[in-house]
Amino acid sequence: MDLVPALEEPLRQPLKSVLGPATAKVMAEHLGLLTVGDLLHHYPRRYEERGQLTHLADLPMDEHVTVVAQVADARLHSFASAKAPRGKGQRLEVTITDGSGRLQLVFFGAGVHKPHKELLPGTRAMFAGKVSVFNRRLQLAHPAYELLRGDPDESVETWAGALIPIYPATAKLESWKIGKALQTVLPTAQEALDPLPDSLRQGRGLVPLPEALLKIHRPHTKADIEDARARLKWDEAFVLQVALARRRHADAQLPAVPRKPTPDGLLASFDDRLPFTLTDGQQRVSREIFDDLATDHPMHRLLQGEVGSGKTMVALRAMLAVVDAGGQAAMLAPTEVLAQQHHRSIVEMMGELAEGGMLGGAERATKVVLLTGSMGAAARRHALLDLTTGEAGVVIGTHALIEDKVRFHDLGLVVVDEQHRFGVEQRDALRGKGKQPPHLLVMTATPIPRTVAMTVFGDLETSVLDQLPAGRSPIASHVVPAADKPHFLARAWERVREEVGKGHQAYVVCPRIGDEEDDPKKSGKKKSSESPEDAAEKRPPLAVLEVADQLAKGPLQGLRVEVLHGRMQPDDKDAVMRRFAAGETDVLVATTVIEVGVNVPNATVMVIMDADRFGVSQLHQLRGRVGRGSAPGLCLLVSEMPEASAARQRLNAVAATLDGFELSRIDLEQRREGDVLGQAQSGARTSLRMLAVIEDEEIIAEAREEATTVVARDPELTHLPALRTALDALLDEEREQYLEKG
Length: 742
Hints:
This protein is of the alpha/beta class.
């Protein structure tokens, strides 16, 4: 690989290290920085101006922070302790201020001598440590610090200019030590190869890469920082979009069998049976899919839509079109509960059309088979035979579909439900079962902002269903503050009883199962000095088994209460779901196993316990399980978090809107982009250090256009070796996966 020697040089080597071996070791282990290039791309999180101080008032709890502040006063106290019984123990308390707030620093024992001499009132310094609370006051215990003398002897090299970069740091390595390490390697930035084609860089007025690296780490003015950021954001967006454009280009070269539905085939018979009219959105998206299926290269389409917008109906029509054209269609679901649910609802929707080869089956019928890991040997053998002979046109299954033993007669379409649960290997393994690459339809019920779709699913064309079918009822959502207003929680259980009294059913969702395997070892005892927020956070999450027991003996006594969770036997899970669907259970207490795809139109109310422990998109998903029939839905978000907390604000946002796209933006703004890019699953570092997916929408869209043009002209990037090198660095084996994981 044509790599840049200077930037690829490891920070830590057996014979000579670029940095001290101890520093290099901490950088590798705690920050994932292995080479000079990695360190150069470890950008400052923010900058401090010598004359301007940080806001101590905004410090986050339990996080490692770096602040610049001035010493207001310092006091040395003596005290007696087990180690120093004669009152010889020493504690230094230093108060620092920045005008917006005050913060206490404490040093103990032998650690008091140096700060006692150096941290005199009026001294300014950078302090780094973990923020904690003692006696209701914020404090840093034994913080590391670096004095900012501002005198002529101060090493100008170390703190160049008036702007001090503050780096993402760890307890083992403070921001200023990272800054000093960067000064050591900064000269090598001159050798950085520029991945942007000259015409693009000049056309958009972007500074060259070496200059951008220099300005981001040693800015003299705020304009320097802006120049550097504008340039580095483009690098990230463009290299990523080139990777995706090359995948799209490669996929377009693959051959596929065109699949066109016959005018009077299975699809036409199915449409004739429908008791309702498809929404405009469903018809539009179906047309887009049918156009793709008719081409001689594989479809790669992402179908995203609101909870309950009818994605399964659209997917089923696509599957029937492929069966009409002589092929088979497979739907891959992430859990057995969901696979069984899909199988049941598809067989119900198709009626006699799903009884191919059976008595009472319609003339153009096919077989719809289920394949999961827990099926009995005989049923499994039967299902596998139906797939091999082509008797079964439609198969719905879990990962069991991917196993080597599974053979298809002629696989024409793969539908992947809930894309974020599947990795690249699984998607490819199923696609590899066709004689030629099958068409691919990926579905997600988590609405994704356009920019994220372009960044994560950039190799897929996107279709959006944003209309709810007729007959879907609105869902009212309310936050239930259990700690502040316990009577609200009592009223929630009354509402459940009222709904059951009207003949409806309810879900109660908990974050934890509550059997021994997942019980936290910690007891949930509250320390006297803890704030209500700390206590609510540290208490173990509420568990299905405990809550079900308490409800059955208490507020919901006399109702038929059952539990459902992921560690139950598959047959037991299916039996519970069947009883609930048949109306034989009043209240189902479950984990998020019901999050996706479970369809019980008679369920009208959902109570989510410890709702603050779930993500915004997950709450929206869960809420979509109610209001699926003609009666309106109600979702109650129970939380013990105080009103002013960020967690409560998040819940208020969910209660305030049913727009999943709006919520996904809120969710994204609160999480790191790395999670969005699937880094949480692949364990790789996020490739986005500078680009913010939501804020930089325009850059991503423009980069996609530029990338598509570049790849169309030169798919192998033969004339752009520096771009090729940047791409190889992005797509090393560990990071390859995130493009697919989503």
